[in-house]
Every structure is written in structure tokens, then in C-alpha cells.
Amino acid sequence: MTPALEINNLHKSFGKAEIIRGIDLSIGQSERHAIIGPNGAGKSTLFNLITGRFAASSGKVSLHGQDLAGLAPFEINRLGLSRSFQITNIFPKMTVFENVRCALLWAKGYKYSFWHMVSRSRDLTEGADAILEQINLTARRDLPAGVLSYAEQRALEIGITIAGGADVIMLDEPTAGMSHSETDYIVDLIRKVTEGKTLVMVEHDMGVVFGLADRISVLVYGEIIATGKPEEVRGNPRVQEAYLGAALEAEH
Amino acid sequence: MTDISQNPQARQHGGVTLRVAMPWIVGAFLILVLPFVFQSNSAITIMNQMSITIIFALSYNMLLGQGGMLSFGHAVYMGMGGFLCVHVMNWDMFGSLPLPVLPIFGGIMGMVMALIIGSFSTRKAGTVFAMISLGVGELIAACSVIIVVFFGGEEGISGDRTYGMPFLGYEFLSQIEVYYLIGFWLFVSALLMFLFSRTPIGRMANAVRDNPERAEFLGYSSRWVRFNSFVAAGFFAGIAGGLFAISYEILTEENLNLVTSGSILLVTFLGGVGVFFGPIIGAIVFTLLQTVLSLETEIWSLYVGALFVATVMFFPSGLAGVLMMHAPAFKLGKWQMLIVPYIKTLVPAALCIVGIAGIVEILFHARHSAVGETEMTLFWITFDHTSIMPWIVFAVLAIVGFWITRKTAPDLVEAWHAATTPDEVSR
């Protein structure tokens, strides 16, 4: 079976600074994969390379066996990959409902149509309301997205990310800056909405990572030093030395 | 506090409700009835001008308000459409073409121009787009004195609308017939532009305006979305140009240049870019100021400029935004609370403005009138600008008006807050 996402010998340099230094990674279908690593390890850069926000210096990324080289973000999205952002990235002036509806338009086949009325499309309205129900924002439906609380905006971001029905979901630090209860809420939400889908996620919160991920990759200075099941990674001495020890100590 | 939802009426799926159709019915009724209220020829000319400006401003707002593209060269598309229509009027085949169809030629011309220019200018929004639009605007305006065959050089080109094939027996000799022709196109264009904003591509134009990057990660090319809005805006600008050609039968370089492009930005912003009907209000107010005020005073553009600056500074959402601010008060049924505070503040404010305007007018007259001509008429009173009394009266008006306004403004703000907050929260 082809992996959902495969990365071969990926490199990225900004000028002389080499940020990603040869990454090989294979993520299977319906796998929940977490990428962890210290600050500045290149996690977000890796995300941006996969999703076409940046072009790689060398190496290859393939989605379901298809090479993504040279494709624009919107083309990659149409192939079934969707992402969220580390910094909340929604449509602040539009209502919560409209945010989700916009995320549905392409997937429901409306594309660049100028002969449909969005308000008269039952599948759009019902689809968007179903997503709102799923992310618990039904009560906020008609508010401008910009006035929601931080956790709600993050939930909306996840809603937008999954709405298009992509089967590979990439979440960049979905719980960053959240309180404990908010984190629990978002983790439950992620578990619920990524059922049966491939999830790739960057995360700092170890509790979230070990609770959610099937496999973990540890990224340090642009290289993956370990990949495996949570317990394997936890036991790996290199990982403990490079990252986990420090992070676990810091938590105490 | 959180109850600031813009569209609390749930947009349920389904047919056209009376609530949605009502503004359009009222609009159509007004278009039909207004000439019976304002019967003079000059009034009808003003209304024609107004209608054309409304279409142009709505088309401009497809870029600015809906798509987040600040254009400094939108007159190009209206002007090119207009020029083509005048040329069509001069063709032999015009005799077999009913006049009401003519604006379509303008629309297609505007659209073709937008196709060409949009193909490279819509790559990015923001400053890049604004600069390209400015450059292209200058370029085309410069062409108008170079390509004399099409643009007619400095005197422009003119035609005669009455050579067209009579339409249902009308030859469009009189202003009132032209009025209804323009009114028809105003209604159709406004409705189509409104419907465009409700389509998937229209909604995505808003999304791209708010956050182009996020739109890309939803499967949409921001550039293609912008390009589509741009072409549609070009089409309606061309329609406005065609109507201009019909109404005035002449087009010159003025219809293409930066002044026209700049003034439509002003009109649109004045009315408000955030809501669909904003540019309509802007076009009406601006045309009235331009025509009525310019009859009263030579320095009318000073007042328009002041109004524009005040709008940008104090009401960035425009006149429509100011109106929309009062929607909650009406919804809560507490708008009566606002009447007295408004009178208390707006009357002195108006007196203050009258005072300042009076001083400016006397000053202008004193500096610019012919030597020895010291008599002037202002606010229906004739006086001598060398005497001290008028200066004192206007200065007192300005100062006292300003002082009372300052005094009562906080009460107005308080009343407004009370009127727009639901009762249980305010207790």
C-alpha cells in the first residue's frame, strides 16, 4: 500500500542557513503521526515544504504516491491535503458559518461558479452546520470569526481544515497557548474529526503527543533522529539526550 | 457586548423571501417614480448622472470592498466602454441597433480591457495591484492623446444617440426617455452585482480579501478569484461607460484619467465599502454635492474634501456604516431615545459648520472677487465683506456651535450605547 505521505531526502536552505538537512519519512494511511522537537528544529518549515508554501531546495514529497514538486498550495489542497496554521489563520471579518462554508465550496464541486447562489444550496448550508455541530460552535454561527475566543478560533481553524474532506490533515501546534481544559477540549476534537484519516501534527505538549499519536518523529536541527511508537521514542537514549529529557525536566 | 452579529437573520436555505426582495422592490419603485417628483430637466440630468455613478461605484466596490483590491485606474474600464459605444453610434449599423442594447458593447469592451490588464495585475493584491492600476491608468490616459483615431485627441469624440433604431417607438430625444433607459440598466446591473456577491466565486472574493493564504489552502487560487472579480467589475464599469456615452454623447480624455479614477474611490469610500449598498449612498451624496453645491459655491470641492477626510477619520465604514450602527437601536425598539440627544448635538454642530463655512466663503470672496465688488450673498443674506459684522456673526456661530457640540457629544454617545444595548445587560 502506498503511504499517504512520503518524504525522501528533503533539504531546504535559506541562503547559507540549512534548515532541513535530509529528511526521510513515510506516513501510512490513517496513521496519527506527531512531529516533535525543540524550538528552531525546523518543524514548521517542514510543514511549509510539504504543503507547498515554500519550495524545497532538493528532495521529494509525495502524497498518495504523487509527486508534489512545483504544485501551488491550492493544487496540493485539491489532491486531498489540508492544513492548519500555528498562528490562527481564519477569515476574521466573515461569520463563523461563512468561514466553514467557504472551506466546503471547492470540495462540494462549486469551484469558481458564478451561477449558483450559495444561500440556496442545501448541501452547503447543511454541510457547514454539521461541521459547526462537530466543532461545538453552533451557538457562535452568525458572529464574525474575529470576535471568538482564542480556543474557539483554534477550533474553527480545525473545522475549516477538515471541512473540505481532505484525507491527510496537517495541524501545526493545534494546542499552542491554551489552558489545560482548552487543550483537553481540542484533543478530543482532533481525535473525533480525524477518525479514519491521516493526521500529521506538530506539537509541543507532550501529554497531547503521547495521548494522540500512533507514531512519533523527533526532529532536531533539521534531521529526524528517531521515528517510532511513543514508548519506543520515549525510551530512545538519543531522543532523551537531545530533547525529551530537557522537556520532561522542564515540565516538573 | 457579544451581540454585534451583522446578519442575525438566519439565512435559511430556500426561496426568495419578501425580506430579501423588499429593497429591490423599493428601489425599482423609486426609479420609476422619482421623475414624477423631480420633473425639471436639470433634476433628471442629475438623476441620470447619479445612476451612472451608482453603477460605476458598485463596480468599483467589487474590487475594493468585496475583493480587497485598491484600484487607482478604474476609470479606464468605464472610459473604454464609453469610447467604444460612441464609435458604435457613428457606425452605419447603428441604425439597425436599438439604443438600450448599446451599453452591452461598453460592457464587453470594459471586460476585454479587464481581461488583458487583469491577467497580470491581479497576481497580488495590496500595493502591487494598486501601483499597476495606477500605471495602467496613466498609460491609457496618455494613449488618448496619441491614438487620435480611437480617442479623438483633446476634444474627444462625439456621437448622436438618436440615430439608433427606434425602440418601441422611442427615439430617446428627451432626457426622460434616457432616464428610464439608464434606470433599467441601473436596476439590472445592481441586481446582477448583488447576485454575483452571493455566488461561490463572490463569497471566495471576500475570503481572499480577508486572508488570501488561507483561501489557497482551501483549494482556491487567490489570483484566479481576484481575476474573476476584476473581469466582472470591468464589465459593469463598461456598462456605466456605455450609459455615459448615451447620456452625454461625448467622451474625452477626462473619462479615463486619474481624476475620475480617484473620485470613484472617494465616492465608494464615502458611502462605505463594507456593505453592498454603501456605494449607492456614496454616489447619491457625491452627485448631489457635485451638482447642487457647485451651483451655490465655487469652492464646493473644499467641502467635499473635508467631508471625505472626516469620513475616513471618524467613520471608516462610511455613511452606510453610520446607518448600520443604528440598526441595533431599531431592532431593540429604542430609537426614540436617540432623537433628543441627536437634536441637541447635531443642531449646534450644523451651526458650527455654517459658521466655519461662512468665514471661509467671506475670505474667498474677499480674496477673489473683482476689485471694488465687495457685496456678496450668503445664506440668502446680502452683505458687504468689508464690514466687520458678518465676520463676528459667523465666528460666534462657529465657536458657540463648537462649544455646545463638545458639551452635548458625551450625552449622545451615552444615549447611543443605551439604545443599542439590550435592557437586561444595561441594568
Supply database-style keywords.
heterodimer, A: 252 residues, alpha/beta, Rossmann fold, 6-stranded mixed sheet, 9 helices, B: 427 residues, mainly alpha, 2 domains
Short description:
Helix content of chain A is 37%, strand content 23%. Chain A is α/β, with parallel strands linked by helices.
What's the SSE blueprint?
The complex is a heterodimer of chains A (252) and B (427).
Chain A: E1 5-14, E2 17-27, E3 32-36, H1 43-50, E4 58-63, E5 66-67, H2 73-78, E6 81-83, H3 96-105, H4 122-134, H5 150-163, E7 168-172, H6 180-193, E8 198-202, H7 206-212, E9 215-220, E10 223-228, H8 230-235, H9 237-251
Parallel strand pairs in A: 3-8, 3-9, 6-7, 7-8
Antiparallel strand pairs in A: 1-2, 1-4, 4-5, 9-10
Helix pairs in contact in A: 3-4, 3-5, 5-6
Chain B: H1 18-37, H2 41-66, H3 75-90, H4 102-121, H5 126-146, H6 148-151, E1 157-158, H7 175-197, H8 200-210, H9 212-216, H10 222-248, E2 250-251, H11 258-271, H12 278-296, H13 300-314, H14 318-325, H15 327-331, H16 336-368, E3 375-378, E4 381-384, H17 389-420, H18 423-426
Antiparallel strand pairs in B: 1-2, 3-4
Helix pairs in contact in B: 1-7, 2-7, 2-10, 2-11, 2-12, 3-4, 3-10, 4-10, 7-10, 8-10, 11-12, 12-14, 16-17
